[in-house]
Fold this protein.
Amino acid sequence: MQTIKKTIKKTLSFSYLLFIFFLSSCTSFPTYLVPETPFQNITVEDTNKNVIWITLDGIRWQDFFYGTDEASGENGEPLKRFKVGSDRKSLAFKDVHRRLESSGVAFGDADGGAPMRISNPTAVSLPAYQSMFTGVTHNCFSNSCSWVPIETVQERVLRLLKLRKEQVVTLASWSKIAQAVERREGGTNVNAGALPWIESFSPSKDLELEALNQTLIKKGSGGDVRLDEDTMALSTWYLKKYRPRLLTISLNDADEFAHSNKREAYRNTLRRYDQFIESILQILESWGEEGKSTLILVTTDHGRGYNGRWTDHGSSTPGSDQIWMAALGPSLRKGIASSNVYQHNDLVPTVHAILGIQAESCAQCGRVISELVDVVLR
């Protein structure tokens, strides 16, 4: 059922909208001329930093910055507003915001004058992920797109930093994420959808991994979507065992519950995400100096509609284009988000800068988020 809701419901609803748009000749999506190699004149000076990039599908900026009030309205409107730090009990991401009070930086608080937006015109998942992981907006306007046509940041980091394959990995609840992090299947290390992990990096038997795989198989493996609890468990295992340089974790449950208008399940999922991020931070802190070299970057692929339309997102749903981002880590100093409006395309050049990849970007490419780089490298 989750696969149907994610892949079919969203794709068909968007396809219908697209049909109406073209039929009426009122509007159409632009054509993007994407260069085959958008980042030129690349130089590399490895900073020995690590990045854990976590995407949480379909979470509104209001829910991240202002939390949830149990007595909020019945239509899923942006929940009662509490300024960050003033009443953490009402925040779904209370541990994240506790961390942000003393270190790190967050972007996308539209009420605070610093909105953050998607780069693609659709506010649909796969187009958003493809622009997020390439730094360029593509001619992808639905969840039915094929593989991204140019090199992704995951592929570039693996190639330019000359890393072993296990040092760049993507673990995702939704199978389509593979088409956003790889230009060619198998180019990096990806496990997406309800698939067990096939261990190829270590010859020794791993009992913890076997237990994780057996749990997944009992639930039914092979589908397009797996539960986030399984993705989070696999991510934790992988992080501890391999300590990768670039770990991408993509979670999906919140968007499923929102589409089904299950507000309590949506709220509880956000709290589980908060606990998961905190657990990752505690692992990093236990590593001492090595953990201090790691940045956690958390963001979302799209927003959601306002008030009674909170279950939806897309180009015809106001509010869907607004997103957010937070950066945390054991050694980050406190950062201050400016009034600059950033977007998905800006994430790749920012990750480049953090890892030590300097590149001359194209006209369509994003820009470095200097406020974020400052808290990581200075």
